[in-house]
Design a protein that fits this description.
Distance between the termini: 42 Å
Radius of gyration: 18 Å
Shape: globular
Number of strands: 10
Number of helices: 9
Oligomer: single chain
CATH class of the domain at 3-86 and 155-237: Alpha Beta
Bound molecules: adenosine-5'-triphosphate, magnesium ion
Order of helices and strands: EEEHEEHEHHHEHEHEEHH
CATH architecture of the domain at 3-86 and 155-237: 3-Layer(aba) Sandwich
Strand order of the largest sheet: 6-7-8-3-9-10
Strand content: 15-25%
Length: 242
């Protein structure tokens, strides 16, 4: 078991944004996390990555209890994440943005730069390495978010709508990139609203609603689940009655 999150609760005032969420993950999986707006998916990610401290529950990652650990401690153990709204240092060069991640394991600038260049090559950003990050388009910014996370050399990568806002061609490029990351041995949890992305990438789908898991299983079976259709997908996903 690479990740075991049990009974995670996150309160904002009296509001239970995450309300008893459980998720276990084996090494090598790609899990798709889906659910309606406001279901608590990003808040749950924030808890898993140490960006928010849960009010209750337990997070064990790679044998270590990280429930109350800092984001840096999570990253050091090998857990990286992207943000739903890309966090890009717009005036800094693309390479320097990626070096921010690379410094975690390569404190010396030369080694961090080498790591950043390797990741830029892999993510298809090598040609823009010297350009300011603010000059990148949507796909480029998504790539950059992923590149910075990869530069920390994670064993688990949390992608929060990393493919949202892309057109059909760009989506295919991004899907191939995620497959390439997985092929390098990285375990992934992906939050996505586009079901075709979940169906083509995820081996298992987990459905969040009102802060906890309401269904989990093979993606195709999950999207045909009545409770999931009711809570999230709506009638258009219902099978035609023969
Ligand atoms: N910092 C915060 N303070 C107060 N409420 C918050 C905060 N962050 C999130 N919330 C609320 O918690 C709930 C869950 O939000 P969250 O962003 O985790 O949902 P989500 O499943 O990621 O939704 P989406 O699919 O729209 O990204 C929402 O009602 C949101 O308004
Ligand atoms: Mg979200």
């Amino acid at each position: 078991m690479l990740l075991e999150a049990q009974g995670i609760v996150k309160l904002f005032g009296g509001f239970r944004a995450v309300d008893g969420a459980d998720l276990s993950l084996n090494r090598g999986e790609i899990v798709g996390l889906i659910g309606p707006n406001g279901a608590g998916k990003s808040t749950f990610f924030n808890c898993l990555a140490g960006d928010l401290r849960p009010n209750a529950g337990r997070i064990v990652f790679d044998g270590h209890d990280l429930t109350l650990a800092t984001p840096e401690a999570h990253a050091r153990r090998g857990l990286a994440r992207t943000w739903q709204v890309p966090v890009v240092f717009a005036e800094m060069a693309v390479r320097d943005n990626v070096m921010v991640g690379a410094f975690l394991r390569h404190p010396q600038a030369r080694a961090a730069r080498r790591k950043a260049d390797e990741v830029l090559e892999f993510t298809g950003l090598a040609a823009q390495a010297d350009a300011p990050a603010g000059s990148l388009g949507t796909l480029g910014r998504k790539r950059l978010e992923i590149a910075r996370a990869l530069a920390t050399e994670p064993s688990l990568l949390l992608l929060d709508e990393a493919l949202a806002g892309l057109n059909a061609t760009e989506t295919q490029v991004a899907i191939d990139l995620v497959r390439g990351i997985h092929a390098r041995g990285v375990t992934l949890i992906i939050v996505e609203h586009v079901m075709s992305v979940i169906l083509s990438l995820a081996q298992r789908a987990v459905v969040f609603n009102q802060g906890h898991v309401i269904a989990a299983g093979a993606p195709q079976a999950v999207i045909e689940d009545e409770a999931v259709i009711e809570a999230y997908l709506g009638k258009r996903f219902r099978r035609p009655v023969p």
